[in-house]
Write a structure and sequence with these properties.
heterodimer, A: alpha/beta, Rossmann fold, 2 domains, 4-stranded antiparallel β-sheet, 7 helices, 32% helix, B: alpha+beta, Alpha-Beta Plaits, 11 helices, 75% helix, elongated, cell cycle (chain A), ATP-binding (chain A), AAA+_ATPase (chain A)
């Protein structure tokens, strides 16, 4: 599903974000990528969603060779990968409904389909009553659930979560993790980037550890060891 | 087509949800257009003033009272053959005498002296106007030939030469100054519009990045901004024209005192509406679209 072969990312001679990474994620897997700040976790996410290009090596997502992807195909790739971020990245001037709908509008979905899908999705993430609210009227946990709804709107095969609980309290963190586990149970590959020891240890899933841009461990049922 | 209607919807949403920024953008565009229009009006007044001074300048050719009708006709035909000549007015001996008497009707001595003479001492006169003040010199030179020496006794060349030269100089200088000022205003207008749009785009840079991350194409992101540019242009040009017409209505009574023409400015704005509004609309639209393209380029790289 996701395959990295000898991937390196250098910003300059002194700054090496990723160094010769080999990583293969199978369909339906739940992989936690852990590491301290500056270990290269976010760079890895950026390479997967083509926000950055690898300096060397090959990044493949499904049938897409990201290292060679033309700029005009990047929007198509991003519609097939669900991404959630630590800072939620919601459009502040749009309502919750409009935020989720936007992800469908970009791909030219019809208004009638959008009107059917969005309320159902917001129900799944437990926010049917907030449909006309603006992001600033929601709590952090609620905003992250909206971001998850938006990420799922295209029924992606891969969901990449970059520090999704970084701005949340313990209760909201547990809620979000439950949602991610459910999404994975329905067959979606989940890549969770985090430095939250507790949630990684609770998951008892595959853990990939990065340190100073290098992949230092990859355990099928791993623990947070840093 | 669906994307186009969505772009229109997003454009209106953006305008109303950022209403203070939208109003500020239109206000700046209106102020900029008012400055440009003020320059256009100043240029119009200058050309009107220059033209009215030019209209008052002419060359009077005084013929000897002995000059025959054939000789005068020959000179008249010669003068009319110049393409630079726009008008020739002929006054016979008797007309000149009548005008003279009317002019000095309150001076008994002069009138008495004229009455004393047996015959009319004044010769016929011809008043010639040229298209440009600079052409008078050419005309005067052309008449200063030996064959007309006995027929033409005087030309008002000496009296008006300086005035003609000055008007010519002023006209040239004003035109040169207008070109420089128009260029300067053009640069200022471009910078104002560019920065206004850049600020408007900058406030939405995070939104643009997010839109890219959820799979929007560059065109899907750009199109609402292009439509917004169109809406801002329509409003700013419309408001500016309305304000200019309103101001013209207030100024015109004062202008009429100087130029002896009623509704001069209002008529100018009305008769040139297509050129004025059309050119300004096109310039502002292209400038706003160009500015938004340039300002967005950075944020669309994500």
């Amino acid at each position: 599903m996701i395959n990295l072969e000898g991937v390196s990312k250098r910003y300059n001679k002194q700054s090496i974000a990723l160094d010769d990474i080999h990583l293969n994620v199978e369909p339906g897997e739940f992989v936690s990528v852990v590491g301290q700040s500056g270990s290269g976790k976010t760079t890895l996410v950026k390479l997967i969603i083509a926000e950055e290009r690898a300096s060397s090596g090959k990044v493949a997502v499904g049938d897409w060779d990201i290292t060679r992807i033309p700029d005009r195909h990047i929007p198509l790739l991003r519609r097939q990968i669900g991404v959630i971020f630590q800072d939620f990245k919601l459009l502040n001037k749009k309502t919750i409904y409009e935020n989720v709908a936007f992800a469908l509008q970009v791909s030219g979905e019809s208004g009638s389909r959008i009107r059917t899908v969005i309320p159902r999705l917001l129900e799944i993430v437990g926010l049917p009553h907030k449909i006309h609210a603006y992001p600033h009227e929601l709590s952090g946990g609620e905003q992250q659930r909206v971001a998850i709804a938006r990420a799922l709107v295209h029924r992606p095969k891969i969901l990449v979560a970059d520090e999704p609980t970084g701005n949340l309290d313990t209760i909201n963190t547990q809620d979000i993790m439950e949602i991610l586990k459910k999404i994975n149970e329905f067959g979606t590959t989940v890549v969770l980037v985090t430095h939250n020891r507790e949630i990684v240890n609770q998951l008892r899933k595959r853990v990939v550890t990065l340190d100073h841009g290098k992949l230092v461990s990859d355990e099928q049922i791993g623990k947070y060891r840093l | 087509m669906r994307s186009f209607f969505r772009a229109i919807k997003f454009a209106f949403q953006d305008i109303f949800r950022n209403i203070s920024l939208s109003l500020m953008t239109v206000l700046i565009l209106v102020l900029m257009l008012l400055s440009v229009n003020t320059l256009i009006i100043i240029k119009f007044f200058t050309s009107q003033a220059t033209q009215s001074v030019k209209d008052q300048i002419d060359v009077s050719i005084f013929f000897a009272h002995t000059a025959s009708d054939e000789e005068i006709d020959e000179v008249q035909s010669y003068i009319k053959s110049f393409p630079e000549v726009s008008n020739v007015e002929y006054f016979s001996k008797d007309q000149v005498l009548e005008d003279f008497k009317a002019k000095y009707s309150d001076n008994e001595n002069i009138i008495a002296s004229i009455e004393e003479l047996d015959e009319n001492p004044l010769g016929p006169t011809m008043i010639v106007k040229t298209r440009n003040p600079g052409d008078y010199n050419k005309l005067i030179t052309a008449l200063s030939v030996p064959e007309y020496q006995d027929i033409v006794v005087a030309k008002t060349f000496v009296d008006t030469e300086l005035a003609i030269e000055r008007i010519d100089n002023i006209t040239t200088q004003v035109e040169r100054f207008s070109v420089i000022l128009t260029g300067l205003f053009g640069v200022i207008a471009f910078l104002i519009i560019f920065n206004t749009i850049r600020v408007a785009i900058y406030t939405q840079r995070i939104e643009i990045t997010i839109k890219k991350l959820v799979g929007a194409t560059n065109w899907f992101i750009r199109s609402p901004y292009i439509i917004e540019s169109f809406i801002f242009t329509v409003f700013s040009v419309g408001i500016t024209y309305f304000l200019m017409k309103f101001a013209a209505g207030l100024i015109d009574p004062y202008v009429a005192v100087v130029f002896k023409k009623e509704w001069l400015l209002t008529d100018y704005l009305t008769s040139n509406i297509i050129v004025l509004v059309g050119s300004q609309f096109l310039a502002v639209l292209l400038l706003t679209i160009f500015s938004s393209f340039l300002a967005m380029r950075r944020h669309l790289k994500a």
